[in-house]
Amino acid sequence: MLRTRFPGLLIIAFLLAPISLWAQSTIIDCTFPTSWEGRQVLLVARPLGQPNLIDTTSIYNQRARFVHNIAEPCPAYIWVEGHKNDLTFFIDSTHIQLSVDSGAVVSYQVRGSTTNYLWKQFDDVLDSVRASYKREIVFREDTIPSSPSQQQIDSLDNAYATQVDRLIQSNPFTRASWYLFASNYTMLPHPTAVKLLDKLSTFAAYPSYARITEHLLRQRLGIKAPDFTLPMVSGNRLTLSKVKSKYVLLEFHVSYLVPFQQQEPALRRLYATYHPSGLEIIRVLARDDTNAAGLQTVPWLRVIDTTEPTSTVWSKFGVDLPPYYVLLNARKEVIGRAKSVENIEALLSSLLRMK
């Protein structure tokens, strides 16, 4: 794995002048057919890093209005009582107008959003990848749930990441691209995420930009791993810096998630193969993982992350969606990150061949 440089992340103040966040409030005006008078209307917006914003009103004089503070651009949809399809749009200005025509086929127009059309293109492309995921991994033969191989999962994850990268690269200055990146960057390879963040520096004024920058900085290779002391499942306490091994693999684990159960046999083989060569594994369990203590015994170390929710060991290591593995050398420097045991095995094999 390559060290990742951050040419633009450490000098954000000198980046291109950031775009305006527009006014504090966004007005969404909706116009509906006369026959829809009195129906309930529901607005659902999906702001970054926050719960969905939900509001409701009724159609009066063919109109419905929503006014909300939305700090950053985000997708949204309108649900109307009695209408089966949601009316999707993208909020990227202070005033969005949505008008519905109830002809033989209900259609609608969105005005005031400069990137609404682009967001729909993004969603259509990614929907095709999601459909493949469901078809290949979730169900086979229409009704029978399958147990996908790690190779299948990696292949489809890579396809999704490739499409996200391509869409952003082709439209780096649109607000829809920023939302696409900020809501999907954890699925991207780290070098790709860093490259795209630099490319999207136009949006450095957004609060999410600083948060994502900090998160990606924590994921660099070659940095000293943050030390920790945590209680072990056995009752003792473990300090990372006191573990004397040639390599230490931190496995950030949630016992009740199926992917971990599927990767357990591969992790056992990895330990059996590389422990004699100096590998130690530390399983870092989430503090709310109440099933952990009662699980089958494993030959490696197990600790429970009991630190405060705002500064967990998971967050200090920049852990994204689990499964997640961080490989350290004897000096406790981060030399590898992966989401599968197979990728860690490939890295260890390469490192030991170089010795």
Automatic annotation (TrEMBL):
Tree of life domain: Bacteria
Q: Which SUPFAM superfamilies match?
A: Thioredoxin-like (SSF52833)
Q: What is any Pfam family matched here?
A: AhpC-TSA
Domain Thioredoxin: where?
219-353
Q: What is this protein called?
A: Redoxin domain protein
Q: Which segments of the protein form a coiled coil according to its record?
A: none
Q: PROSITE patterns given for it?
A: THIOREDOXIN_2 (PS51352)
Q: Which GO terms describe its molecular function?
A: antioxidant activity; oxidoreductase activity
